[in-house]
Amino acid sequence: MSTSHPVTSPLTYVAVFLSLAVLTILTVVVAYYDFGFMNVVVALGIAVIKASLVVWFFMGVRYNTPLTRVVVVAGLFWLLIMFGLGMSDYLTRGWLGVPGR
Amino acid sequence: MANAHDTTLAHGAVEAHGHDQAHAHHPKLQHHFYSMEQQLEASILGMWIFLVTEIMFFGGLFLAYIVYRTMYPEAWIAGSNHLNTYMGGGNTLVLICSSLTMVLAVRAAQVGSRTGQIVNLILTILFGSTFLVVKFFEYAEKFEHHLVPGPNFDPALPGPEQIFFALYFIMTGIHALHMVVGIGIMLVILRMAWKGTFTPEYYGPIEVSGLYWHFVDIVWIFLFPLLYLLGFHLGH
Fold first, then answer.
1. What is the pTM of this model?
2. Which chain B residues contact residue A39 at CB under 8 A?
3. Cross-chain Cβ contact B55/A76 below 8 Å
């Protein structure tokens, strides 16, 4: 009986693993340098690439049904809503001279 | 038994009518699923829905991190320089190794290799345990240096640094708790693999446990740069 998940070659997994290891070392190496506000962008950019590799290859989302993919994307979307609304509150509190603050 | 007799008759009827034999009953197929494939997809979907709740759970902590980092950027940079980047980075590599062995264990189930499952699951458990041991020494160092929030926190350090360390301990602590739970799950899966439960047709439990394991790895992939690497360039 066929299953929806084709068997992946171990070489693919090893290649993903090596990419993750290289990116981990890279994120430490770039942390030695100061790029100003870009520090956090670089660090998070590498983390997002690493997480995407894990999700796409190790967690097998590339073989999942569209329904499962919608759930995965919805999770990230709601996370961004939480960050967006949360920060739109905290970052704008000082904008108006509200009495009592 | 009358029941068994009926089943035999039913199967005979199905064959007589020339129905698709792909739906012959696999012993591990729950009666409410149409096929093994559908059963596996349902398990994966269910696990992802749980993982989305986990994303939101850790997301709240990450939001707290962002809010306080925006308020006290200096304390965050100073606090991150108290963390041991090499222990944190080494642990990142350990977790990536564990994710590789995890995915190889799932693959071993897909190709029907019992030995492959057992070896890779044991390696996964060992890598996970290594992570926790390193974490233990890291925490011990923080206690020795009076960096644990509370009455014994180093009074020479500015107050907001306590907030950094509070978040450090909550976030890494809950992550470590997830690792402990993950190791527990892997021990159960190892027992199932040992008994030869998983076959190329039926490997749902090892697959969805793997999803959980990889998720915990991803949380650390974000925790490491956010906690350890902020002010790294200043200390070197």
1. 0.88
2. 230, 233
3. yes
